[in-house]
Amino acid sequence: MTRPRVRFAPSPTGALHIGGVRTALYNYLFARQQGGTFILRIEDTDQNRYVPGAEDYIIESLRWVGLLPDEGVGFGGECGPYRQSDRKEIYQKYAHELVERGHAYYAFDTPEALENRRQAEENFTYNYLTRTGLSNSLTLPAEDVGTRLAGNEPFVIRLKVEPGHEVHIRDLIRGDVTFQSSELDDKVLLKADGMPTYHLANIVDDHLMDITHVIRGEEWLPSTAHHVLLYRGFGWEDTMPQFAHLPLILKPVGNGKLSKRDGAKFGIPVFPLGWTAEKAEDSFTGFRETGFLPEAVINFLALLGWHPGGDQELFSINDLVAAFSIEHISKGGARFDYEKAKWFNQKYIQAADNATLATHIRPLAEAKSYRVSDEYLDCVAGLMKERVTFLPDFVEQGDCLFGPVREYDVETLKKKWNPGFAPVFDDLTSFVAGFEPFQAAALEEAVKNFIHDKGLKPGDILPLLRIALAGTMKGPAVFDMAAALGKEETVRRLILLKEQGEKALQNVVSA
Predict the structure, then answer these.
(1) Percent of the chain surpassing pLDDT 70
(2) Using CB atoms within 10 A as the burial measure, which of 86, 185, 242, 401 is most buried?
(3) CATH number of 352-401
(4) Contact between residue 167 and residue 178 where contact means Cβ atoms under 8 Å apart
């Protein structure tokens, strides 16, 4: 059996949508499971829509989520060039060959003439019915056509679709799909500027790159009829790839496909990475900047339209490769459940080792001018990872671990602090200052014994200890925080807490 060759072929017309990452993922999983080849091809034939930086964004996105191509732009390979704008002469050769084979023709209609026809005829389509009344090599004398070509008169090459035929494909996801050729238009294959359209370029490239399976979004299903006709026209039917058209990713709420604008509308990321555009409304934050681990994004995307069955939800990339099959991809659209994406991220953060998390936390801490050791970041990771959803939460929710308490829970202080606590806190501070070894378990036992000996209850003092260290009732275990902060900082915060407690008490009396 021939090992499969699949391609991910995005257009650099802007940032790569998260749905495109899912398409890349399914191609990658299929290739890896079958021992095949995963190719990145940049389809930039529409130069009018080309956006500078988009190609680099696509490659960086694939690198971030770990879907590294075996061949392609930026990765090398024997079937290049893999950027379509570098293959212009190849497409021209095959377009003219298709004319010679009688399956395409030259069309000299000016844009103005076609626009006039559209204005005069509602739902105008260039097809077998209308082409006989238009300016093309099927209606003009051969001598006239030759003269026009010799004179470099602008032309396009169109696919010649004959009526009365069925175009049938066996889609690996949707089963048998049949199109009537009478309902198809004569697609432009080569534009007047010499650049191919998607329809010609992707067929020629898939053939020359030995692509065995085309796994792409369902929006391309209607175009597949034209693509089959192109394979027939070139005589490549025996090597035509198998098609699998993926279901849509649907909006979180309401109907329709998840769009690029839905990110701003729903306040969620819909792109893998952030993007900075000239206009603020065209800029956005991606999954990476929001604080997702790439492994969590991959797991989330894999289950948007595919599941092998059973109750398992957490899959490593190796698990996904082992379990993946096109047959288990759903026909129906998959709802983009952002809450589920957050759940995945929590699970992956919790499962990650502290050293790995520390590498993610460091740039976030340094961006806030926090200078801490790797050992300390490991400790912070261990204290916080059960309590966070996103990576920035480590330094935002855990800011008390990186710097002084900036704000105290005054309401709880008012309830918990009483006039008799000042001398108790002085004694506790002295006790903590002299305690060794300054480790969480030993310190916890000793402080609880101290509280008992003072005739107090843990609920009298421990909430105040938490507020002293964190400023709030939330956060890691009190004595774990104390051990992480160290004796000197813990003592300093206990002293400050006494001042805050006295101030809170004065405010209550004044009121």
Answers:
(1) 99
(2) 401
(3) 1.10.8.70
(4) yes
CATH class of the structural domain 5-83+249-340: alpha beta
Region of poorest pLDDT, from 82-86, 162-166, 218-222, 282-286:
282-286
Topology of 87-205 in CATH?
Glutamyl-tRNA Synthetase; domain 3 (3.90.800)
Asked if residue 222 has a cis previous peptide bond (ω within 30° of 0), the answer is: no
At which residue do the structure tokens 């993007």 appear? 275
Residues tagged active-site: 260
pLDDT of res. 132: 96
Kind and range of the H or E element at 190? strand 188-190
Q: How buried is residue 474: exposed, middle or buried, by Cβ count under 10 Å (0-12/13-18/19+)? A: exposed
Q: Is the pLDDT of residue 509 over 50?
A: no
Nearest partner of 205 among 100, 98, 76, 83, judged by Cα: 83
Both tokens of 411, joined, read 């309401």
3-state secondary structure 350-419: HHCCHHHHHHHHHHHHHHCCCCCCHHHHHHHHHHHCCCCCCCCHHHHCCHHHCCCCCCCCHHHHHHHCCC
CB 224 within 8 A of CB 309: no
Give the per-residue pLDDT at 109: 97
Instruction: Say if residues 308 and 328 touch (Cβ distance below 8 Å).
Output: yes
Q: Domain 410-510, what fold?
A: Arc Repressor Mutant, subunit A (1.10.10)
CA nearest neighbour of 355 among 379, 383, 371: 379
Cβ neighbours, 10 Å, residue 375: 10
